Amino acid sequence: MTGKPVARKNGRAVSPPLIDHVAAPPAPPCTLVIFGASGDLTHRLLMPALYNLARAGSLDPGFRVIGVSRSPMTDEQFREDLTTSIKKCFAETGGAFDVQDGHVTVEKNQWAFLRDHIHYLAADLGDPNSYVDLGNLIASLNDNGTKKKAGDGDRAAGNQAAIGNVIFYLAIASSLFEPTIQHLAASQLLKQTRNGWRRLIIEKPFGHDLASAKELDKIILKVLREDQVFRMDHFLGKETVQNIMVLRFANGFFEPLWNRQHIDHVQITASETVGVERRGSFYDATGALRDMVPNHMFQLLAMCAMEAPNSFSADAVRSEKAKVVQAIRALPPREAANDTVRGRYMAGTVQGKPVKNYREEPDVRRDSTTETYVAMKLMIDNWRWADVPFYVRTGKALATRKTEIAIRFKQVPYALFRDLPQATLPSNELILHVQPEEGVSTNFQAKVPGQQLAISGVKMNFKYSDYFQAKPNTGYETLIYDCMTGDATLFQRADNIEGGWAAVQPILDAWHKGYGSLTDYKAGSNGPAAADDLLARDGRRWRDLT
Ligand code: BG6
Question: Which of 164, 296, 479, 480 pairs with 492 at a CA distance of 20 to 30 A?
Fold first, then answer.
């Protein structure tokens, strides 16, 4: 059974046209300063996202970008580099940049518009003079995005009023967050004027544990107001993640079932086929738990488990999310370790390609004890979810790339069909498919046609692509646009971040104290056997990933 919409014309089934995206009006003009301009994130995700926004007509003619990085480069060289990367991104299929409607070529006019609005500044982020140069450059750019020559009067160096709206995007190593923010503040660049707001986008990792996250928040909130800070979690840019709220709160029939009366347990999975790739030194110091759980996995959990907010305002939504994450039960070290499995991949084959043992990956310590997989059982201590386990798992170099939330309902209360061979009927499941396929499906029981009463499991499947036109989307478009329009709903407030860390801190402490051991799994498998045991203990099983 598929959910594909079918209309009838002269008795013949025809598919109605796919529904197009709702275009957003251009965001207010601003300068987007990207620190870390030569990095992967800028080339692979931010620029393609800006290009998609340009194509959708969502950028104001007064919009401009200033890339900031160490290496000396002219505007023209930077633009050329970006042109090469963006063409490459669009030519690729799959991976982080999904081109869903086949081969999309870069549209010359739209790219030319954006390209002409891109500038470059070579700067040392530790040098206060770099921020003076930056202020001067922002002020000296006129509305057409072209640089004015020195001595151009009202937009001269240091003229705060000429700077206008600015977003500072920290796409840099986390060790540089603090000094960069301090320098921005000292150079008065974070000071809002009547002529312009100042906002800060900060990428993860936001801290390394609860204490460091709190410390970073303290530093930021000394120089900025909370509504100027946009803590990025790119999972919130994913359409299906945003759709969880619509699914729950724009439909009448899910919510009455969405609680401990009807739900047996929830499984949240983010399984990746990629290994650590070129990020060995970052990853080895981070591990699967810190890299994925307090942020991405808890976003999925919060969307699925939070109470209905009393409005769709940024604060109402973020307050509900904070509450549910704060309700995750904190366990003493031994129990926390007992409810957690950590694994590390060994050599194997992922989708036909050989994968090295994790410890032999570039920039990984040969005696590393970092986990590349984590699975855990979490309990949420509130009225809605008391006694309903949330099982969470994520790992690298696994057999399949799949992110999903599976809601497993309780079994029927009475075995009416007890004489059937299928005496124990599987319980119903609702699956929210986040990626790579986006949609919602449900499994239920149906009668097999025929004189005998026989029952079989069937599936109802809604795919986004059956209803809506696919547009190339990096996931960053909505987030950048929302920051430009000042909508923080899809960004993390300080309490959301700290709540996430507080919930994983007992596990970090337990591991630090030596509780729980690291188990190996073969690259290309479904993860360590110990993760299966974690559920088997409760008489449950993970959903099959393949
Ligand atoms: C990043 C993690 O935040 O998210 C990566 O640092 C991970 O390790 C990535 O691969 C997953 O994001 P996506 O969008 O590819 O599922």
Answer: 164
